Amino acid sequence: MFTIKNYVKVKDLEEAYELNQKRNNVVLGGIMWLKMGSRNIQNAIDLSALGLEKIEETEDSFEIGCMATLRQLETDSRLNSYFDGAIAESVKSIVGVQFRNTATIGGSIYGRFGFSDPLTCLLVLDTYVELYKKGIIPLSEFVDMPRDNDILVKIIIKKDTRKVSYLSYRKTATDLPVLTCAVARTEDGWLAAIGARPARAKLIRDERKMLGREPEEDEIAVFQSFVEENTVFKSNMRGSGEYRRHLAGVLLRRGIRAVSERGE
Ligand SMILES: Cc1cc2nc3c(=O)[nH]c(=O)nc-3n(C[C@H](O)[C@H](O)[C@H](O)COP(=O)(O)OP(=O)(O)OC[C@H]3O[C@@H](n4cnc5c(N)ncnc54)[C@H](O)[C@@H]3O)c2cc1C
């Protein structure tokens, strides 16, 4: 059980940032992960009065406030029609609706959990995180940055013509995933992200152009071998590294075929 000595509903991001510089102070998202721990928190920093729970569409992007819940991402018709339903697919197996009504995208992405479904999915989109002090950074960089005391303000997903597919494998519905896989085809070619390896999702770009726009089975097999050989898979209670490597190949093939079948 965790304990909170003092609860602060901040009036602006500067106040949140200042408070967050002390080791025993903690920013609150939906508190679903935090409450599983046993931290003694001096000041709990609540961002809920800052209007950061909105999902906004602009001409060239979607901007998702850090306090938007996973359920908001799942049910937002603009986001999901734009990205082929992949974002909804990436959160729909996370525990249950009541849980997703509380867990936030800010807590999910800031946490950079090794099992994260939405992190895997957002990596194959043109996604950026806006940090209060460090500014706007591509998610592909943020994923490998060490944790610090900045505040994740919003997630920005640029609109483009990419097609995308998200898949995960779980032993039982709503359990943590054994493996996650997202695939996208952009104007420049293909990319894939593999997560729950069990480590932070890894983005792999088809820089050698192994895959054509609508790849044949032999092209898919070459890319699959490349991903399997260049990705580290490890073992834990949910599965062995070898099993994960096999699953990655299966999900990757399915994802590439699903994107291909959608045409241009
Ligand atoms: C039982 C259980 C099962 C789960 N299953 C899955 C699953 O299958 N797939 C999956 O992808 N995820 C899963 N999750 C993770 C979950 O989806 C959320 O990612 C997680 O709960 C964190 O979101 P939160 O809003 O609850 O964050 P919190 O618990 O409130 O915070 C998490 C961390 O992020 C920090 N933080 C929060 N918001 C910000 C911010 N704006 N700026 C800076 N730091 C911030 C907090 O200080 C804390 O360190 C599971 C979690 C639990 C507890």
UniProtKB/TrEMBL annotation:
Q: What are the record keywords, sorted?
A: Flavoprotein, Oxidoreductase
What Pfam family does this protein match (any one)? CO_deh_flav_C
Q: Name one GO molecular function term.
A: oxidoreductase activity
Q: Which PROSITE patterns match?
A: FAD_PCMH
Stretches assigned to the FAD-binding PCMH-type domain: 1-162
- Report if keyword Lyase is assigned: no
**Known InterPro entries for this protein?**
CO_DH_flav_C (IPR005107), CO_DH_flav_C_dom_sf (IPR036683), Diverse_Substr_Oxidored (IPR051312), FAD-bd_PCMH (IPR016166), FAD-bd_PCMH-like_sf (IPR036318), FAD-bd_PCMH_sub2 (IPR016169), Mopterin_DH_FAD-bd (IPR002346)
Which SMART domains does the entry link to? CO_deh_flav_C
Would the keyword Flavoprotein be found if you checked this record's keyword annotation? yes
| PANTHER family xref list | XANTHINE DEHYDROGENASE FAD-BINDING SUBUNIT XDHB-RELATED (PTHR42659:SF9), XANTHINE DEHYDROGENASE SUBUNIT C-RELATED (PTHR42659)
This protein's name: CO or xanthine dehydrogenase, FAD-binding subunit
